[in-house]
Amino acid sequence: MTIAPADLREAHMRVWALLESGLEAHASWRDQFLLYGLLATVGFEDPFDETDSKVCELSDQLGLPSELVVGEVRHFIRQNCLWTTDELVAEMDKAVQLLAGYASPEEIVESLLDFSPYAKRPAVLSALRSVVVQRTDAEAFQSCLSQFKQ
């Protein structure tokens, strides 16, 4: 049974209820959603689309079009899985490792600073500097970071 497009509120409720129960029951879901939330936090595109296996599974399970499921999952992530600046600073190694798969060092630095409130930028820069020093692409990051005062 597929829900008619006019019944979007019902579709929204069903997708969100399934996501919430899945997040309660599966640690791997929580971890994945936190990582997707990190990407959403700093303004990167979400790393999945209508062809993603989990999206197809949810779509089949709910009897809903995959485009609608994708939209609801992205909305759910932006509402529930966004990171604070303090979390970002504390988990900068995880953040840089994930973001490096989606963007260049320049884009990562710009995105992290665009996301960070001005007063927290020194902490973000400090955490970023300490993490990138250990990376194989440290030189590319250092050239981006050199324009900012220590």
N-to-C SSE string, H for helix and E for strand = HHHHHHHHH
The number of domains is 2
Q: What is Rg? A: 18 Å
Strand composition percent: under 5%
C-alpha termini separation: 59 Å
Find the count of extended strands (DSSP E, 2+ residues).
0
Helical segment count? 9
Q: Could you report the average pLDDT, rounded to the nearest whole number?
A: 87
Keywords:
mainly alpha; 69% helix
In brief, what are we looking at here?
The protein is mainly alpha-helical and 150 residues long. It is 69% helix and 0% strand. The model has no long low-confidence stretch (mean pLDDT 87).
Describe this entry's structure for a reader:
The protein is mainly α and 150 residues long. The protein folds into 2 domains: 5-80, no CATH class; 85-145, no CATH class. It is 69% helix and 0% strand. The chain has 9 helices and no strands. It has helices at 8-25, 27-41, 53-62, 66-80, 85-90, 92-99, 105-115, 121-132, 138-145. Helix 1 packs across helix 4 (66-80) and helix 3 crosses helix 4. The protein is elongated, with a radius of gyration of 18 Å. It starts with 7 loop residues before the first helix and ends in a 5-residue tail after the last helix. The model has no long low-confidence stretch (mean pLDDT 87).
